[in-house]
Fold these 2 entries.
Entry 1:
Amino acid sequence: MKKIALVTGGTTGLGAAICTNLGNDGYQVIANFYPELEKEARLWQQQCDKAGLHCAIAAADVSDPSQSALMIERLLREYGRIDILINNAGIIRDSTISKMDVADWNAVINTNLGSLYNMCKPVVESMQQHRFGRIVNLSSVNAQRGQFGQTNYCAAKAGVHGFTKALAQEVAKHGITVNTISPGLIQTSMVESIPKDMLNNFVETIPVGRVGQPHEIARAVRFLVDDDAGYITGHEMEVNGGLFMH
């Protein structure tokens, strides 16, 4: 029986790479997307279909508790269970704190950190019934080392691993693992928008000497959700080319 994997923010960037990787490895993948991006999500789904990869899609603003709960309720009715949850959805609203307004602070905190509560609470209840679960939360190297102009983002992403460690202890006896992956600089649309000279200067600070690729994050996710990874929980996996060594 195929295991059911739900990936938040699953139709773009790292989320899309994670969905593709899990789908190719035989999981039934459900890619969550922000409701206002339905057109783009359906186009992504069509592209997956053409490639022979059949991914379901599910709309919800994961920063909204009621939308998240309703989405999970619908998916549990349709699929019966959710075995794997990847909390990948995230946004940036960069600014120095002297210029940051409260809306940008709240948006980043609610999406990047609050969404973990919104998604994990209903999903964990289902996982406990089935005595199995894998939860992977995406943080960031910037949560570990700090980044100018990202007090909101760094605070939220640092909170991700605190959440991971606490939840891992709560659910371990039910056969559920909870882990964090903290990516470094990865080749996404955000990185592609950085001026070339600035990007080159930044790459020089990375010991492996290059930007990471989305599939490298996806393979780390795939490792942690495997049946054989049941003895790894509360762990933060750093995938950053040596940019930060804990």
Note: The CA atoms of residues 67 and 182 lie 26 Å apart.
Entry 2:
Amino acid sequence: MDYRLLGRSGLKVSTLAVGTMTFGNIGAISGPEAAGARRQIDMCWDKGVNIIDTANIYAQGKSEEIIGEVLSADASRDKWLLATKVRFTMGEGPNGKGLSRHHIIAQCEQSLRRLRTDRIDLYQVHEWDGQTPLEETMEALDTLVKQGKVRYVGCSNYSGWHIMKALRIAGEDRREPFVSQQIHYSLYSREAEYELLPISADQGLGVLVWSPLAGGLLSGKYTRDGAGEGRHATGWKEPPLYDRERLFDIVDAIVAVAGEHGVSGAQVALAWLIQRPTITSVIIGGRTDAQFADNLAAADLRLTRDQIARLDAASKLDLIYPYWHQNMTARDRLGPADMVLHDGHEM
């Protein structure tokens, strides 16, 4: 297992992270209770994983409760980094969601109780709130850091201008800035390359990836001939499936590379992410121990340049404006952050 600095912080995190959305029950996803969660967490620790990612909304707090029970039972809290999130509805009334000072601080305190801990290592705002002033959100997060309840703060599912505005506000007011962003990114969903990954390279943000297998679409369960047995067969919509043919062109490339290594398609899709520029950690999960074990093996898989090039060719997106114009007319003046997107695009 490799370890990478989380953005410009001194905190080192493993290149794979424990995903816990399946701990408890959320929509069509059901998973282990404490005994099964403990087994899967131990599997990850034995492989060298050192960070657990969850959110207050996962199973309406049940995921955090299970993690708290597991880590308190064997006094293993101090060896793990705990990351959780705030933003979505956790209570009744108009103030039961969002990124107001009221909601952030109240939910942090509730997460601490459910996790049975005195601090959260990485506290992430889970989604944009366009009705709360960013000054209020950043001030609330800064307060939690100063109180010792939170050690680092990050964002998730923000657009490029959201991130840059938040970083500016934090800098001007000398408040704690985001150290990382958690994004949806995979061989099928590469939109983050337009803005979010270049911003990470330019601003020194760590990147944690959620749903690296595109909700199971890249796991090998889905084929051109059938719906498969994963979440999308039950109506799951993340990510939206806009281009079925493109998806299965990518799956074909994944299966071909997997055959060359004698591994699963899931391991190839995860290994591609681990080897991408700016990526800090890839969040893995699974409803079964076998799924966790298979995903964990991706940490040892090294793809060749030729294999990466084939996967890129099957999956890369067209350049949209203004990037195609930059590529045509300013390629000789593009910087390292620009090349996170433009590398591999020749016009």
Note: The longest strand covers residues 150-156.
